From TrEMBL:
PANTHER family: HTH-TYPE TRANSCRIPTIONAL REGULATOR YJDC, TRANSCRIPTIONAL REGULATORY PROTEIN. Gene3D superfamilies: Tetracycline Repressor, domain 2 (1.10.357.10). Residues 31-91 form the HTH tetR-type domain. It comes from the Bacteria. This is TetR/AcrR family transcriptional regulator. Residues 1-24 have a biased composition (Low complexity). Residues 54-73 bind DNA. Residues 1-31 are annotated as: Disordered.
């Protein structure tokens, strides 16, 4: 066998022995480190506050190095956003539920609101962190605005009033502003009831918010004009 052929076979063996990319163990270790960082961040955020928390405290809580943190997240905002992403499937499922109601009355909307407040209550600490984060971070407003655009798109599938808000017309632009204002009000409504502990009659508050949503549906539904 020639020397060149021998080198070729040897090279092929080395290639098979060393598969490209990270191994399964390396992927599992990387995921485990990410989970440790997320759990540490959640604990530090909840015991102090978002503003008072530093990246160094998260790193210390996770028991990893600074390089490991920045291998997964580029900032405190980044890891807070990742924590929020853990509950987003449930959040989006609730919006989908409202969209499927089609032309809901106040009672149906009120039931939906109760479920939504309960969702916020189950993740009270996390929503408190995100409320503070979006108020502090420079890109917090943009994140909320993008979220609202996504919500309008989801609701447009079943509610004509929100479909109108997507149209590039004078009526559409007006509906889009009204929809955004409604969503801002709804964000604050859920936060105050489920997180802040608003001292108000729960059923009355839910009924009033349901009226607001129903009023938007009736006022901006193009089929009712």
């Amino acid at each position: 066998m020639s020397t060149a052929a021998g080198r070729s076979i040897s090279s092929g063996r080395r290639s098979r022995a060393r598969p490209a990319g990270p191994t399964r163990l390396q992927r599992e270790q990387k995921q485990a480190t990410r989970e440790r960082l997320l759990k540490a961040a959640e604990k530090v955020f909840s015991t102090t506050s978002y503003a008072a928390t530093s990246v160094e405290e998260i790193i210390a809580g996770a028991g990893v190095g600074r390089t490991s943190f920045y291998r997964h997240f580029d900032s405190k905002w980044s890891i807070a956003s990742a924590l929020c992403e853990q509950v987003m499937p449930d959040v989006w499922a609730h919006w989908e539920e409202l969209s499927r109601l089609g032309d809901p009355g106040e009672d149906a909307i009120a039931d939906w609101l109760r479920h939504r407040v309960a969702l916020y209550g189950r993740h009270r600490a996390l929503f408190a962190v995100m409320k503070e984060a979006v108020a502090i971070e420079a890109n917090g407003f943009d994140a909320i605005e993008q979220m609202h655009v996504g919500v309008i798109e989801v609701l447009s599938k079943g509610l004509p009033a929100f479909a109108l808000a997507l149209r590039q017309s004078p009526a559409g632009r007006e509906a889009r502003v009204m929809a955004s204002l409604l969503l801002m009000q709804l964000d604050e409504f859920n936060y105050r009831l489920a997180v802040h502990g608003w001292d108000v009659d729960f059923d009355v508050a839910v009924r009033m918010m349901a009226k607001q949503i129903r009023r938007f549906i009736e006022h901006t539904d193009p089929d009712r004009r």
